[in-house]
Design a protein that fits this description.
about 120 residues, Arc Repressor Mutant, subunit A, 2 strands, about 10% strand
Length: about 120
């Protein structure tokens, strides 16, 4: 990865997104609009306490925002931070596409050399 791309990548953000349970939680929040640890735990194969911990991680990296809702917190996806994550993924994807193209050109050059 180039230095410019490496600077743009937020390791904490991608560590948070890297967990499949948290990705599923983000999907559910995007579909539902918002949710609590209780409502999310009813749709996931983990306990409410585990969901609350996952939500805390997502909140820490800014992917969700919490607002008080009685004795619980209601979470909503932060569209700005999600857009930031998508932009980072696109940037990393472009860097890898460029690398793979270079590898392909090298492999083709080696193949041509062997045919001569």
């Amino acid at each position: 990865m180039s230095a410019a791309v490496a600077e743009k990548v937020d390791d904490d953000l991608w560590s948070a997104i890297g967990d499949p349970t948290r990705r599923r939680m983000l999907d559910l929040l995007l579909i539902e609009g918002d949710g609590t640890a209780t409502t999310l735990s009813q749709q996931l194969p983990v306990t409410r306490q585990a969901v609350a911990k996952h939500l805390g991680i997502l909140d820490r990296v800014g992917l969700v925002r919490a607002t008080p809702a009685g004795r619980e917190k209601r979470y909503r996806v932060d569209d700005v931070q999600l857009a930031h994550a998508v932009a980072q993924l696109a940037s990393v994807g472009s860097a890898w596409d460029a690398r793979l193209q270079r590898i392909k050109r090298i492999a083709e050059a080696i193949q041509r050399t062997r045919q001569d």
